Amino acid sequence: MDHVKLVNDPIDIAHIHQLLADEGCGASSVFVGTTRDNFQGKKVLSLAYEAYDSMALKEMNKICSDLRSKWHDLKHIVIYHRLGTVPVCEASVVIAASSPHRSEALESVSFAIDQLKTRVPIWKKEIYEGDNNGEWKENKESIRPKKSKSGFNYAACPCKVEESHDVPRTLVQIRVNDAELTKRLECFVNRKRDEINSQNVVDFKSSFVSSDKDLSDSCARTQSTIIKQEQSNCHLKVRRVNNRCGPQQMEMRPNYELELNKLMGSRDGQTDPTKEMRKSLPNSRLQAIESYMGLTTDNEENIFSRIKRVENRLLQLESISPEYKHFTKREPSSMEAAPPKKIRKKSYSVQELSAFIQKIKNVSEFI
Amino acid sequence: MNADGPVVNVHVLFFAKSRELANTPRSTVDVPTEITATELLDHLVSKFGLTSIRDNLILAHNESYIDNLSDRILFKEGDELAVIPPLSGG
């Protein structure tokens, strides 16, 4: 049953519980709104309610029927509102509902108090300490007039879409969800990457790779191509790096040594690799080292072998004696052929020593 | 308000601040049988001195709120209007 009332006396909570009671109900929910003694720091001396009675009751009944349509199992609903002066800390409104299970009772009461504050024509005036006029309160949930401040009647205007401002026509609006957007961005990034890679290949590829080879598996760094092994019946693809520049490809680069020597040598712009040029090359530094070490110089030879020979010589001499350099002979062949023998310590027997001492004695006798 | 049609006399109720400004809880007013809500509001505001709270007022006709101020309202003799400032129940 719906119990809706505007009262002028203190609300009797016990009576309301009686109204809610029912054998089939396991739950009742009661909301009590009480008056506060302060608002925004001001002390409330007294407050009073007034209502548009007939319409207030009508709206409160509408709330009850709303509740019943949303929560079917509600048994009893009570909405009591007190009017006139209400002393501080007393109940001004009580909303209650009972139902078999608690969720309906709890939710419906919460909904009902919100609705009451929005729709029911009741007003409260508060009188504050030090202010004789008092103030009519306003619920933030209260219904408000819908028109704009300017009073402009939008409904009377024909609808016209403004296209000429803000958005440039070159822009397109795409409405997609996050997953789609991420996917599109990813595709774009990948495509751009591939584009850059293929551009790199075109920019950096070496001239000796035939241009009609398939470059899809190539990037600018490896220049790899697919070459099928000759006389191979295998249908597996063999990928071999066709790198003509590395030191492992020496046999394919007969002029490699020459080119390397060119790198080591002068940068005076002479590009003609003749013997004459080589002679005048200031590999003179290496020549100087070699002659000092007592080695033969041969400008024809690979520069690395020459350096290696020098290193070997150094190691050898160091192993002999650390002060070798003061005794270096300038005939390399003889030096190489007969390295100085190491002095070996000889151990003498007792008889040899005796004989030796005897000899000395004999010699000293002659002196 | 243009008196280009039949006019009826209706009751007007004032509440809260509007009652203080109008200085009376109820009165009567002549209205055409058909009028837009905006015009009605303007008429009431000017007649009863409610200009200061005009933008916050809602009207109720026969205990039903007039939600849109562009609505057309049809009056009969003896209808009840109410001037409703923002609510503060609960």
Automatic annotation (TrEMBL), chain A:
Signal peptide: none annotated. Substrate binds at residues 101-102, 117, 124-126. Keywords: Cytoplasm, Molybdenum cofactor biosynthesis, Transferase. This protein is produced by a bicistronic gene which also produces the large subunit (MOCS2A). It is an enzyme of class 2 (transferase). The keyword Amino-acid biosynthesis does not apply. It catalyses: 2 [molybdopterin-synthase sulfur-carrier protein]-C-terminal-Gly-aminoethanethioate + cyclic pyranopterin phosphate + H2O = molybdopterin + 2 [molybdopterin-synthase sulfur-carrier protein]-C-terminal Gly-Gly + 2 H(+). Its main location: cytoplasm. PANTHER family: MOLYBDOPTERIN SYNTHASE RELATED. Belongs to the MoaE family. MOCS2B subfamily. GO terms for cellular component: molybdopterin synthase complex. It comes from Drosophila mauritiana. Gene3D superfamilies: Molybdopterin biosynthesis MoaE subunit. This is Molybdopterin synthase catalytic subunit. Catalytic subunit of the molybdopterin synthase complex, a complex that catalyzes the conversion of precursor Z into molybdopterin. Acts by mediating the incorporation of 2 sulfur atoms from thiocarboxylated MOCS2A into precursor Z to generate a dithiolene group. The keyword Cell inner membrane does not apply. GO terms for biological process: Mo-molybdopterin cofactor biosynthetic process. Pfam families: MoaE (PF02391). It comes from the Eukaryota. Pathway: Cofactor biosynthesis; molybdopterin biosynthesis. Its EC number is 2.8.1.12. Heterotetramer; composed of 2 small (MOCS2A) and 2 large (MOCS2B) subunits. CDD domains: MoaE. One of its GO terms (molecular function) is molybdopterin synthase activity.
